[in-house]
Write a structure and sequence with these properties.
This protein is an alpha+beta fold. Helix content is 21%, strand content 36%. It has two domains: 56 residues, 2,3-Dihydroxybiphenyl 1,2-Dioxygenase, domain 1; 90 residues, Signal recognition particle alu RNA binding heterodimer, srp9/1 (2-Layer Sandwich), CATH 3.30.720.110.
Length: 153
């Protein structure tokens, strides 16, 4: 029955500014009204709704105002440089400063590489890729660089 996640929504304080930000990330506008814009994440499969609202003042929590975009492993390796070329700064996450990202999340029995940044309203944006699925292995969170060197040996 369920085949995936079709849509997610984030609050924004300035729709025009947010539209420009998400266009820089390579997303295409699917639909727009005065206070709402939908962007295709994957055309016909998923989209992101941005709502111009005062609800953007709701304090950030991981259960609110967060979205993660899936990327390929090769893309996560160059994501920080790609973001910085567009003037988007990676933020410290889980105690790992920007220069130590991407990092590897130990979501046992899975491992994911991720990098974190904020949109203009402080909504948490994540780029993430699976490294291992259904592989029972305990390890501490680490940089992708360290993960790659340890898992190569």
């Amino acid at each position: 029955m369920i085949r995936g996640l079709y849509e997610a929504h984030l609050p924004v304080s300035n729709l025009s500014k947010s539209i420009e930000f998400y266009k820089r990330l390579g997303l295409e506008i699917a639909y727009q009204q005065d206070n709402l814009a939908f962007f295709w994440i994957e055309k016909g499969n998923s989209w992101l709704g941005l709502w111009d609202t005062d609800k953007v003042k709701t304090p950030y929590h991981p259960s609110l105002r967060h979205i993660a975009f899936k990327v390929d492993l090769e893309d996560i390796k160059i994501a920080k440089e790609w973001l910085e070329q567009m003037g988007i700064m990676v933020r410290t996450s889980f105690g790992f400063p920007p220069e130590q990202q991407p990092l590897v999340l130990p979501n046992n029995p899975h491992a994911h590489a991720a990098i974190y940044f904020d949109d203009p309203d402080g909504n948490s944006i994540e780029l993430i890729t699976p490294l291992r699925l259904d592989y029972n292995e305990d390890f501490e969170m680490m940089t992708l660089k360290k993960w790659s060197s340890e898992k190569q040996n």
